[in-house]
Amino acid sequence: MFLSVAKKILLAAFERNSKLITADFQKDFMEEKIKHSYQVLGMGNLLLKHEACFERLSKEDKDYLQAVVLLHDVGRFAEIIKKKSGEWVDHGVCGAQILEGNDLFNAPDCVLPIRHHGHLIDYLYSDEDYKRLPETMRQRVRLVSFLVRDADKLANFYLLAKNFKEIEDVFFAAYCFEEPYSQKISAEVWVDFMAHKSVRREYICNFADMALFFVAWVYDLNFKTSFEVLEKLKIMEKLIFWFSKFWAEADACLIEQKINEFIRQKTEEI
């Protein structure tokens, strides 16, 4: 029941906002985003199937979690429209506001994971709504948040791996037009990376920062299955190889070392 309703909510948000745009590239972007929602659901299903923490779920609870994963970007379409008019909104916050008005999906274990899925996990932990919850519900919110965040990142990693030949062309163009190593990694970006945190978009100032932004996605992964997918895709090695062209040699070596150490440590812990 939950998943079927979620599909209708997602489609309604897509159609409602699609009527407000005329530019083809924006329509294409919206269509890509609804495809992305289903790709994230696919990765969520993989985690729900293979992770031990989900194996005893009731059929109804699994259906509910699938719905939450699918709805993670329900606010993205409104975000596109608002940005078109020059207004900045966060699609996670926007999505949470949409779902707060729905009796099926206004619970903390839906609203909070969606509100903060695009932020550093610290934003969730400092949210006053989260802090007011009893510990048992906070545990549930954390688990659902990890599911949503991992599924989202894995879908993005999968697309990067699948389309890597096209992405190489983008990297090559940037390499041709930008002097290698001319742009240093910004101090704030470096601090986030070295703290094993996803890089905040507002800190990105140049291509070197953007490169580290993509690589740092790995810090947001929480499940053993997620790291197994990452290993099969071999995407991290490809990204580091290409992006090293935009980092100082010493930085590139340290980045590769830190990433490999993190992956080894996480896979041993889980």
Shape: globular
Helix/strand/pairing class, anyone? Answer: mainly alpha
Helix content: over 70%
Uncertain residue ranges: none
**Main sheet properties:** none
Distance between the termini: 32 Å
CATH class of the largest domain: Mainly Alpha
What string gives the helices and strands in order? HHHHHHHHHHHHHHH
Description of the molecule:
This protein has 270 residues and is an all-alpha fold. The chain folds into 2 domains: 2-153, Hypothetical protein af1432; 164-269, no CATH class. The protein has helices at 2-18, 24-50, 59-70, 76-84, 91-100, 108-115, 121-125, 128-131, 135-162, 164-177, 187-194, 207-215, 224-233, 235-243, 249-269. The radius of gyration is 19 Å and the shape is globular. The model has no long low-confidence stretch (mean pLDDT 91).
Offer a concise description of the structure:
This protein is mostly helical and 270 residues long. The chain contains 15 helices and no strands.
Furnish the topology, listing elements before pairings.
Elements: H1 2-18, H2 24-50, H3 59-70, H4 76-84, H5 91-100, H6 108-115, H7 121-125, H8 128-131, H9 135-162, H10 164-177, H11 187-194, H12 207-215, H13 224-233, H14 235-243, H15 249-269
